[in-house]
TrEMBL record:
Name the record gives this protein: Transposase
Organism field: Paenibacillus tyrfis
Domain of life, source organism: Bacteria
Domain Insertion element IS150 protein InsJ-like helix-turn-helix residues, every copy: 1-40
Database matches in Pfam families: HTH_28
InterPro entries assigned: Homeodomain-like_sf (IPR009057), InsJ-like_HTH (IPR055247)
Length: 73
């Protein structure tokens, strides 16, 4: 859902429309996700919705290939 919201915003969809389509209650949540996206903090976007972000290196990957695939997403 986070990446879908980011893709919609990058395509120029207004925040209100993104909120309605994805059932997001607070516009600051979308702004936070956009800030993380622009800063390259993609590991934060992989955190499940509703879970507090755990500070660290992000998710652990079984291999370097999995890590690279995740970075491309």
């Amino acid at each position: 859902m986070k990446m879908k919201a980011i893709e919609m915003r990058l395509a120029g969809v207004p925040v209100k429309v993104v909120m309605e389509k994805l059932n997001i209650r607070n516009k600051t949540q979308i702004e936070t996700w956009m800030r993380w996206y622009r800063a390259g903090e993609f590991h934060r976007l992989e955190q499940p919705v509703g879970k507090q972000y755990s500070y660290g290196k992000g998710p652990e990957y079984a291999s370097e290939l999995e890590k690279l695939k995740a970075e491309i997403r």
